[in-house]
Specification:
Blueprint: H1 3-11, H2 37-47, E1 56-62, E2 64-65, E3 77-78, H3 85-100, E4 107-116, H4 124-134, E5 138-140, E6 145-149, H5 156-164, E7 167-175, H6 179-185, H7 191-204, E8 208-215, H8 222-232, E9 239-244, H9 266-282, E10 286-288, E11 292-294, H10 299-306, E12 310-312, E13 315-317, E14 323-327, E15 332-335, E16 338-342, H11 346-354, E17 360-365, H12 368-383, E18 385-387, H13 394-405, E19 409-411, E20 415-418, H14 426-433
Helix pairs in contact: 3-4, 4-5, 5-7, 8-9, 12-14
Length: 449
């Protein structure tokens, strides 16, 4: 065991608090209320008609799954009834119509991502109907659209249809190849199934394959997590998301299939994270942000190298859109005014749309301070460094100095930089910079390490 890992093990208890994941700033528990509908649509109208609009990013949440993966904390609906497909697509397209009214006749589309749930729960015909409508007046910019797939529920027809529509990136949910772990998380998918989908996507013409692997899963030993990386090496995906399982049974009831006693210790999590990271680096992957890895020629690696990496609710991206439009149940949208989130229950979302109402249940209106802190948090999570805000409290300075004293960051009067070996502590640095949520705050969620 090298000294770097031993050092992190010594700091494990100190920095293992539950803190926000910082997929947004402010984090969801701190949201203060959604911007007004009229202001929201006016901002989209204005931004898309700017002199040089960056384009919009579009996320569609497709929540249905045939089987419950017990580890999953996403918003999903378990059903084998595929009669739900057409009505749900109808509803999403009706929601899209409300945005189409304020978009230009031709608008730039920088990102399109289908997430879930299981997007490939939907037939090739329904996926084509959905995407064709979304792209009707779009001017594509960027390197192609992306879709999440479940390897056990994906067909060649679906992938060929998506490719014809312009999709070039596919994200395969692997999680673990270990049979014992797969049984507990109810995600039974042998390596041959994953390889088949990977090879199929490559043969069709998809140019970027991402695979998700989790550590910290129930009854997953350190050697199990490392074996998953060895196994995935044969497939050589362009990108790998290697991150810790978040145990939130109060939010995801399926996680009650096992107990905290089944979970790896913090020590085991850190060993899995750090030894896995070393293995990925030795395989030629570059670290991206906190928990992603990409081959040197991949667009994410290039964006990180040039300082142009961006992060939104869809994850790390090389595109930076002024507007994110989220369609479907529980989707989150963002523009310069703030955030808005759709109804989280399928029936409530559908009923609201059918009545011509806005399906928003919450959100946040940015304050002047939010914009500055959001930029700082984003820089830390993407570039692992940032200029410091103009004003920091004594408590914030003390926390930053403590992080520096522990050898995790380089700190000056004007800048903070996370040391390369300390990327896993990025969220602790963000918490120290966040004037609302400090490391010892009670308003926290998600395991940090």
């Amino acid at each position: 065991m090298n000294n770097t890992i031993e050092h992190k093990l010594q700091l494990a208890d100190k920095y293992s608090a539950r803190i926000p994941r910082y997929t947004s700033y402010p984090p969801v528990p701190q949201w203060n209320g959604s911007p007004l509908q009229t202001d929201w649509m006016q901002e989209i109208y204005r931004s898309t008609r700017a002199t040089e609009p960056k384009g919009i990013a579009l996320y569609v949440h497709l929540p249905f799954c045939e089987d419950l993966c017990t580890y999953c904390g996403c918003n999903k609906r378990i059903t084998k009834n595929h009669a739900v497909e057409a009505p749900y697509i109808d509803t999403v397209l009706k929601e899209w119509d409300s945005y189409s009214q304020v978009l230009p006749d031709r608008f730039k589309l920088s990102e399109l991502h289908l997430g879930g749930g299981t997007p490939t729960f939907f037939s090739a015909q329904e996926l084509k109907r959905l995407v064709s409508k979304l792209l009707e007046n779009a001017i594509p910019v960027g390197e192609g659209w992306s879709v999440e797939v479940h390897p056990s529920h994906t067909t060649r027809e679906q992938l060929e249809t998506l490719y014809e529509l312009g999709f070039r990136r596919i994200s395969i949910g692997v999680q673990s190849f270990n049979k014992r772990v797969q049984f507990l998380i109810n995600r039974i998918q042998p390596f041959d199934v994953v390889k088949e989908i990977n090879d199929m996507a490559r043969s069709i013409g998809f140019t970027s394959v991402n695979m998700d692997i989790l550590y910290g899963l129930p009854q997953q030993r350190v050697e199990d997590a490392l074996a998953d990386i060895d196994t995935i090496a044969e497939l050589r995906p362009d990108r790998i998301a290697y991150y810790g399982y978040a145990h939130v049974p109060w939010k995801a009831a399926g996680q009650r299939r096992y107990s905290e006693a089944d979970l790896p210790t913090t020590r085991e999590r850190i060993l899995s994270a750090e030894l896995g990271r070393e293995k990925l680096l030795n395989m030629g992957y570059h670290p991206i942000g906190m928990d992603h890895f990409a081959l040197p020629q991949d667009a994410l690696s290039q964006a990180f190298k040039s300082g142009n990496l961006h992060r939104n609710f869809m994850g790390y991206t090389e595109q930076h859109a002024d507007i994110l439009i989220g369609l479907g149940v529980s989707s989150i949208s963002e523009n310069k005014l703030g955030y808005r989130q759709n109804e989280r229950v399928v029936e409530a979302y559908s009923e609201s749309i059918s009545k011509g109402e806005i399906p928003v249940i919450g959100g946040h209106t940015f304050t002047p301070q939010d914009a500055d802190i959001s930029t700082i948090i984003s820089n830390v999570m993407c570039n692992m460094e940032s200029a410091l805000p103009a004003a920091l409290s004594d408590k914030q300075w003390n926390q930053l100095r403590e992080l520096a004293g522990d050898g995790l960051i380089e700190l000056s009067e004007s800048k903070v930089k996370i040391k390369d070996h300390a990327r896993m502590f990025a969220r602790s640095v963000c918490a120290a910079l966040d004037p609302q949520t400090q490391i010892d705050s009670e308003v926290m969620y998600g395991q940090n390490l």
